[in-house]
Amino acid sequence: MTDNLPGGTFTLAGRTVARLGYGAMQLAGPGVFGPPNDRDEALAVLRTAVELGVNHIDTADFYGPYVTNELLREALAPYDGLQIVTKVGAVRDDQGGWIHERSPEQLRDQVESNLRNLGVEALDVVNLRVGGGEDGHSPVSGSLAEPFGALAELRQEGKIKELGVSVVDAEQVAEAQSIAPVVTVQNWYNVAHRGDEKLIESLAAQGISYVPFWPLGGFSPLQSSTLDDVAARLGASPKAVALAWLLHQSPNILLIPGTSSVAHLRENVAAADLELPADALAELDTIAG
């Protein structure tokens, strides 16, 4: 069923998905490392998300590591009607550090690991995570031809159905597209962290989804008196307003807010129905300066 999906719909990799999806990162332990504090609740979050109409789930083998993919397999396999998007380009060290690994051999190993832990023969969509920078989460200019080309080969082998890129700039998106089709771009973007508007517009014209990670601020939750004031005036939570603002920005924006709580999940999904009046939108647009 595709009627009344949260936030409306968009076609991602040939499948109609709800614009409000779910990001599985927070199902792992503190610091996205180790097992969840409450495994039963984690499984309940995944199953409840699907019951609420969510059919686009974002994950990665380096969440945990392996934890979120193993939870997904237990809760939702064989993933009927779901679009599971994973990412490669990093691994975790023994202390939970995030280590870039992007050689063709390393990427092949990561793809094989995702296949095993999700329990599938082919991955729906694989994002190549590229950037980093001083903050660890911003684009860094440079060629992605070698790693993206390696994933393109795995796509030709049938291990990957479609490809995307993450933490990239517009030039890197264009370079990737010259190698193989790109169905999605995932970057850091929210009401307080802007700058990708031209890229979002370009992708929308091409029918390519843009997925903002950290729609609610990530490791540093959004703190804004303006956001709080608008939320209070509308009788909504600041998180709901931040998500509704993103949905309003462009029809190709797909959201993947994460949570480890069923109650918070329901609040996030409810944000898909929140209407933002013009004065609220104008006020929110001042947050990023």
UniProtKB/TrEMBL annotation:
Keywords: Oxidoreductase. The keyword Transcription does not apply. InterPro entries: AKR, Aldo-Keto_reductase, NAD(P)_OxRdtase_dom_sf, NADP_OxRdtase_dom. The keyword Oxidoreductase applies. It comes from the Bacteria. CDD domains: AKR_AKR13B1 (cd19088). Pfam families: Aldo_ket_red. Residues 19-287 form the NADP-dependent oxidoreductase domain. Signal peptide: none annotated. NCBIfam families: PRK10376.1 (NF007695). This is Oxidoreductase.
